[in-house]
Amino acid sequence: MRRVAAEEIDALLPQTQCARCGYAGCRPYAEALASGTAGLNQCPPGGTTLIGRLAALLGRESLPLNPRHGDETPARLAWIDPDACIGCARCLPPCPVDAILGAARELHTVIPSWCTGCELCLPACPVDCIHMLDWPAEAPPPPRPADNRARFLAHEARRAAAALERERTLHDLKLAATPAGGTTP
Fold first, then answer.
1. CA 85 to CA 9: how far, in whole Å?
2. How far is CA 143 from CA 17, 99, 114, 123, 132, in A?
3. Of the candidates 85, 75, 71, which has an alpha carbon nearest to the alpha carbon of residue 124?
């Protein structure tokens, strides 16, 4: 078994950020592979092709996809049924690449060229109006891993900035509520 940097492994992964491998995303899975604590056969979106590439890179034996993590499927695309969508906006936060457009009490839609097919939006929908479709022939090609990674990093940066802003606001509110003597009731 060869020691390989997580960056090299991460560069091979599909960057769907689906967590089906058992890790919180592609980078944590790459880190586990680099440390030797994860199997190279845990990524359903990458499937057999990825397993072969990982085996060659890591100097390990290729294995079949572990069925515990799901089945290898063709590229898939989320589709939101416009007649069933209630505009709850619960599908927006779990999308790791911000491929779902919409706002509270508005119809939501998916940007096909951004959707990674991660399926993380499915459990968030209370009315089951999101469906996974095989990638349509007439749609643009599925997004490239590098584009998925860039959108995911931008998504994570926006989430971190929003969390920091919330903390600042709460801190300011707490200071404003503190009496002049410096103690809170």
1. 38
2. 13, 11, 6, 23, 16
3. 85
Confidence band, pLDDT 50/70/90 cuts, at residue 139: confident
**CB-based burial of residue 14 (10 Å sphere; 0-12 exposed, 13-18 middle, 19+ buried)?**
buried
User: Which helix (H) or strand (E) element contains residue 169?
Assistant: helix 145-177
Q: Indicate the pTM of the whole model.
A: 0.85
Q: Is 28 exposed, middle or buried (CB count within 10 Å of its CB: 0-12, 13-18, 19+)?
A: middle
Whole-number pLDDT of residue 93: 94
Answer yes or no: CATH 2.60.40.420 is held by domain 6-69.
no
Q: Which residue has the tokens 């939006």?
A: 121
Cβ contact 48:72 at 8 Å: yes
pLDDT band at 185 (very low <50, low <70, confident <90, very high): low
In the chain, where the domains are located: 6-69, 74-176
Handedness of CA 101, 81, 116, 28 (dihedral sign): positive
CATH number for the domain running over 74-176: 3.30.70.20
